[in-house]
Each structure stands twice: as structure tokens, then as C-alpha cells.
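The following block was generated as part of the benchmark described in Methods. Ligand: 5-hydroxymethyl-3,4-dihydroxypiperidine.
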Amino acid sequence: MVKGAQRMLWGAATSSYQIEGAWNEDGKGESIWDRYAHTPGRIKDGKTGDVACDHYHRYKEDVALMKRIGLDAYRFSIAWPRVLPEGRGATNARGLDFYDRLVDELLANDVLPFVTLYHWDLPQALQDRGGWPQRETVAAFVEYTDVVTKALGDRVKHWITHNEPWCAAVLGQLIGVHAPGARDAESALRTAHHLLLSHGAAVPVIRANSPDAEVGITLNLIPAVPASGSAADYDACRQYDGHINRWFLDPLYGRDYPSDMVRDYGRKGYMPDGELVFVEADDYRTIAAPCDFLGINYYMREICRSDDVAEEENLPREIPVPGSELRTDIGWEIYSEGLFDILYRVHATYRPPKLYITENGCSYGDAPDADGRVRDERRIAYLRDHFAAARRAAEQGVPLAGYFVWSLMDNFEWGEGYTQRFGLVWIDYETGERILKDSAYWYADFIEGTRTALTSTLFSGAWPGYVHNGAG
Ligand code: IFM
């Protein structure tokens, strides 16, 4: 189905737990992130998302900031326990009403809503029954999807089922540094499977409730390169790529789980008898439900080195690349070329009809100067370089349709608490005051330039590549 030409959308993204606050207001139920952050020792600065950016009460002010920047689109997520406090069953009308008002406010300000259904805040009531490792949670997600898309599907036309299932599965269930803080390999594999399955099962529900909507999922993808030409480093690279990228991409695009990784996980004892016992007949077909787009979150690359080789041959862990040694405040290498690499590879290998960069951005701690201005030149440089890499991919035929900067505003960075600032907008967490950073003004000029094509920059005029989202 060809849905017609569309210009490149420029947006910004957030998620519910990271910005909303109001953690127990208006009938909202507890989420696993409420429980996790309230547990002493879990969050670096000991803080929680109880108040966060207080977006729940200040959403009109925040939409006005989006308008000032000139965003075409805004990606946000719904807090499942705000809508269904117990995860299933009774709907909380006041919770749903918040998102109803937010969507109307966005549309009244010409900002397209892109809604993520799950950005990690599972209702604690479902966790108490076993959470994502339990297949029952798939049915619960589909019910929740039905409630939300029935309520908002007349106005929201872009739906993302899940954000970064790798993080929910691996950080939450294997390494235990995200909620619910478990450390169990089989639970992590079950979680990944049930997240993917719930995505596929939700797609037809969204299509039924939200006619003409675009539906997709967002993955965090990391281009991996071997640190040397040694066979061992190549194998380390294969494993890393399989673990982060292919385990999710392959089943979504009809290839089932990658057999090399099934073998590896079996050898590592991640599955009883080395078998994917939790995969049932038809699951792969459900997971591979045709979608309109894939969302990619890009932050970094990974240089892979086998520890065995390192000991024997003392190979470098990192390949120095001129101009790319710099890191952001969270310690992640800045490597804009990796964005080109991952976009091009996904397009060439899996052929999603359309791609959105649903997150890209950087953490810098710049604060207001004496004159109240936040001079975050490093963020401007970061965005300019990454936009250019995306542009090159589009010029090579990648069907890129939109780009969402992470994040609209500084917010609660999960286990890091408030120690990392990713926003275009600076937040004073004491007073709630918002200040547009220099990068926000730069982005506003940039977006304006893409609309008027008056500038002579690389970005003026039509953005190449994206034409339609027809199949194939
Ligand atoms: O803040 C997160 C977001 O919730 C998911 N993607 C990565 C961001 C930065 O870590």
C-alpha cells in the first residue's frame, strides 16, 4: 500500500517514567520502575521518577516549547499502570484522560504524536505475577494496547509497540541494572521472546483500532566491528552483533532466531536442554507481522575484541579513529559514521518499508551561564554530524522518514538518576523551570531551514531518499 509522499519529520523524544512524575496521582498504579527506584541502592544519585520533570502537570508548557522549536513530531510513551493500574481489567479514566489531553494539545499546535506503548514501566501488579518471563504478560499487553488504541487511535497515527526490547530483557533480567533487577539468563530470553511476541500480536489490534495508522517497533542497534583481523575478534564481533542486533531483527523480519546464537546460548546454559522451549507453534509468524516502519535508536558502536586474544597478543580494545575519540558525559564514544552504517545495513539486509531514527542524542552537563544561557555547543556539533550521516544514508536510498532527538528535555536517566542531561531543554529539578539550550535554538533554525529551503546548508531543500512506504 502506497500512502503517498511525506516530507522528512524532525522531532524529539521522551518516555513516561523519565519525565511525567505524578507517580501515584489520579489513580495511577505502581510500575516496576517505581518499585525499583524506591529500592535503596538501585539508582546512582538515590533519586526517583516520583516528580521527574513534572510533565504530567506542565504538559501544556512543554508542548509550547515544542512549538517554539518547531518540531514536526513528538515521540512519547504511555505509562501502562496509569491506564490500567492493575495491568489488566479496570481502566483508569483519569489516567487515559491525561494522554487524551496531551494528544489534543499536540495536534492543536501542529505537532504529530508518535506514541510508544511500552517504554519499560510495566505495572508492578503484572510483575508480581511473574512479569515478562511469563507468557500471560503477552495477552495483558494486547489488552492494554486495545484500550489505548481505541481511545487515541482516531488521532494518533504513528504507533510504536516497544522501545528497545534488548534493554528490557538484558538490562532488566540478565544484568539486573534496570527494573525489575533480575539476573537470570533464561528469564532474559523469555522476556525478549514475549516482548517480540506481544509486538506481533498487538499489530493487528492497532490496525483495527487506528485506521490508516503506521505501526512499528523501536530497536536499539549498535554497529559492531572487530578490533583486529584475528578470527577470534571476528567471532567476538559475530556474538556481539547476534546478541544486540540480530536476535531482534531476524525474527521481526521472518528469519526466526539466528541459529549461531541459539547454539551459543545453548552452550552457555541459558536454556534448559539447549532448547528454546518457550517458543510455540506460530510464534515466529506472529512476531514477523508486517509493519510500516522500523524505529532505530542509535548512540554508539562497539569495537569487539576477544579476551583470549587480548591476553595472548595484546591487541588494542579500541581502534582509534581520527576525530572520534571524544566521548559524551555518559562515557559513550561519539561515532556519527556508525549511524550511516547501521541505517544502510538494516536497509540492505532487512528492507523495512520505512525507517525512523526514533532516538539519537548526547549527554552533556552544560548548565546556565551567568546570563541564563545554556551554551551546549558540543550537542550542536554532535547533532550536526549525526544529521549529516543520516543524510548520506538517505542519499544512498535508505527510506528514512524522520529523526527524533533524544531528548526533548533533561530527565531521569534510569540507573544514572539525574546525573546525565540529554535534553534540548534544560530542567531545574528544584523549581521545574525550563530553559531552551543553545542546541534547541539551533535545532529550531535547522528545522525552519528544512521547511523554507532558504539556507544553503547541506540540509536545505528536499531530503532525499524517502518517497513512500509501499511494500518492498
Ligand atoms: O534515556 C534512554 C532512553 O530511555 C532509551 N534509549 C536510550 C536513552 C539514553 O540512555
